[in-house]
Each structure stands twice: as structure tokens, then as C-alpha cells.
Amino acid sequence: MKLSSNKKGLTLVILSVVLIAVIALSGTIAYFTDFDEVTNTFVMGNVKIDLDEPNWNEEDGLNLLPGNVRTKDPTVTASEGQSYMRIRMEIVDGGGNLITDTDRIDLILATLFYDKAYGTTPSNIDESRKYSVSDLNALVAANKIHTEYNKDAFVFAGIETGKPSARYYNYIANGGIFDAAAPADVAVLFSNVVIPKDWNNQEIFDLNGDLYDTTSNGGLEVTVPGTGYKIVLKAEAIQSSDMADADEAFAALNEATGVTIDANGN
Fold first, then answer.
1. pTM here?
2. 2 assigned to some structural domain
3. Which band of pLDDT confidence, cut at 50, 70 and 90, is reported for residue 123?
């Protein structure tokens, strides 16, 4: 199928500590800045954690195109005590509704990577380079990057039951104990958003949630623009000293937050 060549720019926005990534595909998107001081964490017991994104610049989120690479590094720091920690990721549309289309969710997750050389020079993902899907697959095969999330520090724990876009990642490094003792534990869920340079219009439109038709000349035409999507990240922690193990700790967090988790979800 011939695809039209009009690939619209993306706007990617991270709202500081709340870590809401907004991706919209349209000509001109206003930059949102009104939640900079909101902290999106939940803790139980005598512990404290911080959720931040130290290397994000507002300008980096404007008018992204296929081939663009951005450093996006949601980072949790242990500030007080020892805990079991996890990150909840929600993928929602521009109206704040959980996305239910699993193909679209997979496409969104396919833009997230963790660079195993994050924080060092040179990095394995170079912001000045445009990557194809095969380029990224080669870096994964060489064990230089991880798809979706940092698999050295986290494990995917499943989805909230019945909600494929509400996803949980449990901290597993250092025996699973997230410790504020010097040097304090720091965990980065992912480090980069990469839009492959060879993604076509259909993939870009699907990413944004557009509805479209095939034109008479075989191209694609958007009939109903989508609202983009947001990635909302929330760090959760529970004091480890009163827990027998991680399973008990995360079960207590599930009860406290009112969720059940399907470990077989993806």
C-alpha cells in the first residue's frame, strides 16, 4: 500500500515530577507547564521516595518526527528508609481515559528504551542519530539497550486486571530492597523515547489514535484526528522491615491502592 508522505510532527511533554508524557501529532501544539510541582508518589510506613526526570528539557518535546531521539529518564530516588518499590504506568488518551487498544499500547511501548550506558559517555543511544527499527533491534541483540524498561533494575509485574494500559514494574535490584542509606538507591525506568525513522504514516496515525481512510491514490487520509496519549508514572513504596518478602509487600500495596494485578497480562 502506498502511504502519503505527510508525516506530522509530534509533541512530547513531560510534566515534571508527575511524569506525564503527552504525545500528540498535529501541526502546532501548545506546551503544557501547569503541573511542574506536583509529586506523584504513594508510600506506606516510615519511608520516602522521590520521582523526578533530571535530564528533560521542555524544548525537547516540541514537534517530534520519525527519526527523533529524546532523553526521557523517569528516576526514583530512595530518600528515607528501606522499602519495596514499584512504578505504575498508565497509558491514557488525551482526555485521560485508559487506552484499551492493545495494538496501540504495544506501539507506544515500542518507542520506550533503556540505554545500559545511561549516565555515561558515550551512550549507546545517540540523540544526533536517526534509528531504524533494525538499528534498534541490533542494539537490543548486542545487550546495549533494553526495550520498554530497565530490565536490570525492574521486572514487569503485570497489568491491573482488565486494564492492559495500567502496568506495574517492580524494583528488583539489590535484592529488591530500595534503600536510602548512603549512597541512596536510584532507579531509572527508561531513558529514551525513540521514534523509528522508518515508521510509516499508518504507524504514526495509530500512535496518535487517528481514524483514517485509504484515498483513491492509495494514500492515507485522517478523517478524525486523535487526541494523542499520555504516559502517567506513579512510584509506590512500602516499608520493608515489616514484610516477609516482596510478595507480601506488593500484596499489601495492592490492598492499600485497591487494585488486583494480572501477572499474565502484557
1. 0.85
2. no
3. very high
Residues in the chain: 266
Q: Which three cell numbers stand for residue 31?
A: 506546551
Answer for the pair 260, 160: CB distance below 8 angstroms, yes or no.
yes
What are 14's three cell numbers? 513531560
* CA–CA separation, 126 and 29 (whole Å): 26
Beta strands in 81-228 (DSSP E): 82-93, 112-115, 145-147, 154-160, 163-171, 178-179, 186-188, 192-194, 211-214, 220-224
In a domain, 4, yes or no: no
Q: Coil, helix or strand for 208?
A: helix
User: Measured between alpha carbons, how far is 248 from 244 in angstroms, rounded to an integer?
Assistant: 6
- Count of domains for the chain: 1
Paired residues of 22 in beta bridges: 13, 230
In-domain check, residue 138: yes
Domain encompassing residue 47: 10-262
At residue 120, the 3 state secondary structure works out as coil
Q: In what order do the strands lie in the sheet with 145-147?
A: 69-71, 192-194, 112-115, 145-147
- What digits encode the pLDDT tens for the residues 100-118? 999 999 999 999 999 999 9
